[in-house]
Write a structure and sequence with these properties.
The complex is a heterotrimer. Chain B is an alpha/beta fold. Chain B contains 14 helices and five strands. Chain B has two domains: 221 residues, no CATH class; 120 residues, 3-Layer(aba) Sandwich (abc type-2 transporter like fold). Chain B has a five-stranded mixed β-sheet with strand order 2-1-3-4-5, with helices on both faces. In chain B, strand 1, helix 3 and strand 2 form a beta-alpha-beta unit. In chain B, helix 1 packs across helix 9, helix 7 packs parallel to helix 10 and helix 9 crosses helix 10. The two termini of chain B are 50 Å apart. Chain C has a six-stranded mixed β-sheet with strand order 6-7-8-3-9-10. In chain C, strands 2-1-4-5 form a four-stranded antiparallel β-sheet, covered by helices on one side. The chains are: A alpha/beta, B alpha/beta, C alpha/beta. Chains A and C meet through helix 5, helix 6, helix 8, strand 12 and helix 10 of A and helix 6 and helix 9 of C.
Chain lengths: 302, 390, 246
Amino acid sequence: MYSVEVKDISKVYGKEKLVAVDHVSFSVNKGDIFGLIGPDGAGKTSIFRVLTTLLLPDGGGATVEGFDIVKDYEQIRSRVGYMPGRFSLYQDLTVEENLHFFATLFGTTIRENYDLIKDIYVQLEKFKDRRTGKLSGGMKQKLALCCALIHKPTVLFLDEPTTGVDPVSRKEFWEMLKRLKAQGITIIVSTPYMDEADLCDRIALMQAGKILSVETPAHIINNYGDLLVEVKADNMYELLKVLKEYKKALNSYAFGEYAHVSFEKEIPGDFLPFLQQRGLSGIFMAPANVTIEDCFIKLLKS
Amino acid sequence: MKCFTSWQGVQKEKNSIKKVMRMKQFLTFVQKEFYHVLRDKKTLLILFGMPVVQILIFGFALSNEVKNSKIVVMDQAKDISSQKLINKIEASKYFDIEESIHSQGQIDAAFKKGAIKMALIIPAGFYQNLVHEHKAQVQVIADASDPNIATALTNYANAIVQDFQTELNTGFEMPYTIIPETRMLYNPQQKSVYSMVPGVMALVLMLLCVLMTAISIVREKETGTMEVLLVSPFKPSLVILSKTVPYLLLSFIDIIIILMMSVWLLGLPINGNIFLLLAVSVLYIITCLSLGILISIKTTTQQAAMMISLMGMLLPSLMLSGFMFPIENMPVPLQVISNIVPATWFNNIIKAVMIKGLGPSFIWKEVLILTGMTLFFLFVSLKSFKIRLA
Amino acid sequence: MSDTVIQTEKLTKRFGDFIAVNEISFSVNKGEIFGFLGANGAGKTTAMRMLCGLLKPSSGNAQIAGFDIYKQTEKIKQSIGYMSQKFSLYEDLTVLENIRFFGGIYGLSNTQISLKSKKLVDELGLQQEAKKLVAELPLGWKQKLSFSVALLHDPKIVFLDEPTGGVDPVTRRQFWEMIYEAAHRDVTIFVTTHYMDEAEYCNRISIMVDGKIEALDSPSHLKQKFKATSMDEVFYQLARGAKREE
């Protein structure tokens, strides 16, 4: 059973006919965490706005919880929770006032659905009389999530909730999402961080308004196809330059402390001698674990 | 049959629950708006500081400057009575007689130089006329380019003449009458504090209602909170309605403040029915609010909303509503425009009710026009209102 | 290679009772890529503002490019470049107009500006786009362009505040290649990032927690010290203990 079904959606902006979303289709299983992964300008926000009934698509259609995004927008609006990319709470209201306001807006009370937000809200409780504008970034994020959850939505749309957030807070945020998933809420989340892809049940890799691939992260990684090797040398800057000149490699790029080099099937015999010949020392080479980021880079190059 | 009625009952109950919920949502929204206003010192300052300051400015301009005003006297009579009158004027704290002059030309020159604020002309045969006809005239000419001062000065001059007349009359059976003939130079309409108060009210309400509502709605678009509101089941039209309620209340408080200040500080009486006055003010507030809503729907940035409110609304209200310049003296195209400025009609209403003390039958036309404007703004707003972004 | 371009000694900034930056002491060498990491609210931005001469320290000392942080802020500003994710270029000016404007601000002569703009446009392959508004460029190109513009006046140090946020992985790497190249020409790079794999590209990293520098070393040494397999883990171990919630 699908929670969200998107069929061939397009969105075009302005007189210049800027294509933000280009014939995109995907579906999200009930209770899944679904990730839209891609850089800024990939069309993630436009898709969110179409699915939350804020924008009309210029082509195609979609349903959320079985409701049509154009005809049944009122039903959808009372069933989804939405956290836009930009912080969208009232900065001049206190933590509690914001939460109370959004609860009432959706025709409910804080008490009625407190169970759902309890884990998150306890961390905020000591600040409940503080103006929202004076909270730290991580706290604002948590409050925004509480406000999006307060009416017990069945589908949660989170537009880049972790952008600009430090790795520790990001980790905490994803743990919260896992707990929400356990309560049966379908979560659609977008992120520019490739390493968050592994935390999703299924992901769509996006670039320039198009979906490059929709799969489970494991499936995408298994389908990588090429042989990926990690290489290290004393002088990484030289290594990267030298790798670019080695034509038998499909691709090479920096990856953390290593350089990742991809080959079609096996490492050519002259690879190591080539590096040594170029005066590189301390060369270390091993098969690399393929990550979503490697897959994304490969998809972008092709 | 029984089943049917109970089904109806359930339906009714459901509806009433829904209504209660809607009401609660609405009230929470209004409460939130009040938080916004009350927590922003700048908004508060504009809301309550501006009307007070405006009234104070007009009040002080009057009381400070009229003391020791320089005047000239042209005494064509040169008899006992004229001399007595001149001495009386000289003795008052309001006037300093610069010089006595002998020709109309000298008066004009002195006015043009800006050296004097008022001239008093006592025509030849002042005493004779008083004695024989029991009736004489004096002429008071004032520089009305500052209307408040001019009005005040002529009022004082008239009072002195009255006083002089009473003194003369003590013990006489046939009273002498001196008729001061007043001429206002440069501003024949004698615009004064009497027309300032309605003008200030029209302006302040226009500024508060149009600008503040427009900005408060557009701000939600700019900060992205509108996005969240739209995704909620709360009716978008209710968003806008709840935005206007606080400003309706706050503007009403402003009206009370302005009226109290004008009565107690400026001594301006409310001659008409106070409830009629308040009722038409509320009508005007609603007109302004609906205009504010229209602007907020058509714009996407606070800056644009502010520009349109200030340039498109405030300036015409200031210049074309008859507040600063008499409409009759405007070129025809501007007169036409002044007809579509709501403040023009409100000015008329306030003058009629507050100053002239007239009843509803004299202002029905203006009321009808303002109502029409309001309906038009609301209609266009509803037509162009979007339930989605962009 | 070892001459120091940034040297701080117990640099501190207080806002009332709140100590945003608490006695940080470190030095950065010429041509080094120095990663400046920390959780949100750890004091990174405040520290960076002091180093750029935008904010007066409450106590402590610092020398930037040999100039004193209290008295010679104007000279400091001449010798540094700055690029942030939020503000970098004017969207409503063309590529060339932006270059000319920033060149002019730093007092480059007209001939220098036209020479440099040509070189810059050629290097970035922006010949087609030189007369287009910056707003029309894709994000990745904007970031690369603004990095080049930050280098326009040949600064000794470039401060990069989350330069690659939201950029796709390929462009991100191209951006880092530019950083490597600049460092190779002895420009010192001082960079903040939330991408932990980017931390690995730095020569040395400092990690700030609650206003203090809790760790400062090369990525490999840090991993050894904290018995971690990735920088992510190192960061997590350090920042998890943060008490400050702002």
